[in-house]
Amino acid sequence: MADANTHQAKIQFGYRRHPDQDRPGQSPAEHPVVIVGAGPVGLSLAIDLAQRGQRVVLLDDADRIGEGSRAICFSKRSLEYWDRLGVADRMVDKGVVWSVGRIFHGESQLYQFNLLPEDGHKRPAFINLQQYYAEAYLVDRISDLPDIDLRWRNKVTALEQRNDSVALTIETPEGAYRLHAQYIIACDGARSSLRQMVGAEFGGQVFEDQFLIADVKMTAEFPTERWFWFDPPFHAGRSALLHKQPDDVWRIDLQLNRYADPVVEKKPENVRPRIARMLGHDKFEFEWISLYKFQCRRMDRFIHGRVIFAGDSAHQVSPFGARGANSGLEDAENLSWKLDRVLRGTSPASLLESYHVERSLAADENIRESTRSTDFMAPNSHQEARLRKAVLSLAKETEFGKRMVNGGRLSVPCSYDSPLSSRDAEAWGGGPSPGCSMLDAPVSTRGGGQAYLTDAFRKGGTDFTLLSFGNGAAIDTPDGVKDIRIGGEGGLADPQGLVAKRYDAEPGSAYLLRPDGYVAARFRHPTRAGVAAALSRAAGLN
Amino acid sequence: MPLSTSSNFARPDDAFRAIVEAHRGLTEEQSADFDAALVLILANHIGDIDVLREALVLAKRRMIDGQQQQQQQQ
Ligand SMILES: Cc1cc2nc3c(=O)[nH]c(=O)nc-3n(C[C@H](O)[C@H](O)[C@H](O)COP(=O)(O)OP(=O)(O)OC[C@H]3O[C@@H](n4cnc5c(N)ncnc54)[C@H](O)[C@@H]3O)c2cc1C
């Protein structure tokens, strides 16, 4: 792809023949779930399903990871999810932790922001980590899980929907074979061939301006902050970004105009002077160079019969805001518990529809946010450019101007207006309302050990969980619901009072959390019947 | 609170005049830049997205009315 591809694939995987390939054509192997695509989304979803006790076949048409530079910024929410999948420590240890960003206009700083200005969270606002490391760690984790059957160089080439299953045709180096599955999860990326196979459209917007993305290796003393420039002296009239990655690699984005010739612009000898102007020296090596035209698109429906789309196959965003992989991971965590329940028969298949409802709302939000950022960077008309100019100049003097400057709004979990949520019946002055993601806070165990609420949730098995406060009218939790008690006898302590504060809790208050850590319902005075009703709603049972 | 379209200035002529005078001596380009900044400052001062949307609709109606008049004349 790029001429300066000095970065070798980190990991190469061998194709291995599977006994499924030896079955006679008329009786292919049957599997409950086949995931197509071993990118960050497919890999994470496979681990999640396997941890829930499902057997998963995961197919990928390539035999390696580590192609090019793609995602680098992984959100707190993604790290909390990866914690549950047993891979977050490794990601954070390797990654570059950050929470501060600065926006410059011309020579001067307009403002700085902190994405996590408070303490008491297990995970940071963001880490930067090359996508190939994230994928490599996920693949390593998969090797601990015998229920995942990961098959490299298995390319899906045809798909046929039947009443009770889907038939796939899979191409391998040794020829084609067929598989049947109850559900196919298409995590096959933005150019999804499964999307074409189900005949779905992928509508949206392509941005005209091009962006040059280079990963350069150098030792530099810049802080681990996200630096974004409008109209910098070294790249007049356009925007630029600088962000640190592990291994002394720096991500540099330079906006180019719509007429730039990709072949010419990508040549290292042409990129080098641009970056030297930015850095003030040319003591750096290229890891990777590419030129992108960004797009914001989504499928109308994420579910087509028994084929369910997740990640970039379902929705694509421009990267300003780091909403691509992060939102795909949210898809995975949203889908996994629902699919698990449907396969077990504890919830009806109609529960899956809520995946489409919730995650297509999220896709709209992510597309809206990243479209606004990209439009702000590359105004579409003279008048848009004029308004932007006014914002940038007002930002020097006014707070409201600073807040209108849009150099990327970084990924946060979206809140769902969802059929699975039960509305508040009592008054709450704060805390996550039904449809919002749980918040982390420090807790301590009886033995005095320090931990976090997200740890307690994970250790409980990431199932439906009743988070209750104080000794109040403790109710028996319904069958199958896990318990987290804060305060009271035998509960976790809330040493800094932050759990109670972040959840606006009083003694007796309780939150019903879904297996993906979203709030299903909350109660000032929980009753067994009230909790049971919220539970069956959240499980799609009524 | 809906968009107020009753007259709010004690002396409306002063307000109109102040805006007109602010544009005096500016080129077309500068005037347009000036208006862009002014709109943003006033919009923030209002600070209510519903009022802003109503104002946008009211202003936009001039464009539509203008187009219709043009079409009728043709
Ligand atoms: C320059 C750039 C910067 C970015 N920065 C960020 C960021 O900072 N943060 C962020 O969250 N996101 C970022 N993104 C987006 C992120 O890279 C993607 O959202 C993410 O890779 C999507 O993951 P996925 O698993 O859905 O798909 P992919 O990673 O595209 O994986 C799809 C997989 O499916 C396989 N496949 C395809 N077709 C078939 C088939 N027919 N049969 C079998 N296998 C198949 C492919 O080989 C591939 O392995 C960035 C993207 C770009 C381009």
Automatic annotation (TrEMBL), chain A:
Keywords: FAD, Flavoprotein. Residues 1-30 are annotated as: Disordered. InterPro entries: FAD-bd (IPR002938), FAD/NAD-bd_sf (IPR036188), RIFMO-like (IPR050641). Its cofactor is FAD. It comes from the Bacteria. Gene3D superfamilies: 3.30.70.2450, 3.40.30.120, FAD/NAD(P)-binding domain. Pfam families: FAD_binding_3 (PF01494). Residues 31-369 form the FAD-binding domain. The keyword Thylakoid does not apply. This is FAD-dependent oxidoreductase. It comes from Bradyrhizobium zhengyangense.
Automatic annotation (TrEMBL), chain B:
GO terms for molecular function: isomerase activity. InterPro entries: DUF2783. Keywords: Isomerase. It comes from the Bacteria. This is DNA topoisomerase IV. It comes from Bradyrhizobium manausense.
